[in-house]
Amino acid sequence: MILTLMGLILLFMGAVCDLLGAMGMHRFNTFYLRLHAATVGTVGGKFYPILGVAFIAAEKGLWPVVGISVLTALLVLITTPVGSHALAYAASKARIVEMELDEFRGDENA
User: Fold this and answer.
1) Dihedral class, residue 61 (left if φ above 0, else alpha if ψ from -120 to 50, else beta)
2) How sure is the predictor about 19, in pLDDT bands with cuts at 50, 70 and 90?
3) Model confidence, pTM
4) Where exactly are the transmembrane stretches of this chain (predicted)?
5) Total domain count for the chain?
6) Which one, of 44, 43, 66, 45, lies nearest residue 54 by Cα?
7) Is residue 68 situated within a structural domain?
């Protein structure tokens, strides 16, 4: 009973993270802020519900589902920030989006 309740809370937290990520994508106006909102929505909106499913499956004794869910949650937790960093780095190097202050380039107008 308690694991099911915790699983449902994690599912709700994932829905809230997805909603906040979608609101950020709509409201933020620069590429980097939108990338941050997308990462929050992806990590929180996928990681928490997958762990919630693992908790619910653990209470029902579905151990293969628990193992696969935990492994998937860990993969999401590891790969999503790496992908976001790669996108931000590529956009910075290609100068697709002009930044006010680029610490990597060594601007002197700081």
Assistant:
1) left
2) very high
3) 0.78
4) 6-25, 37-57, 63-90
5) 1
6) 66
7) yes
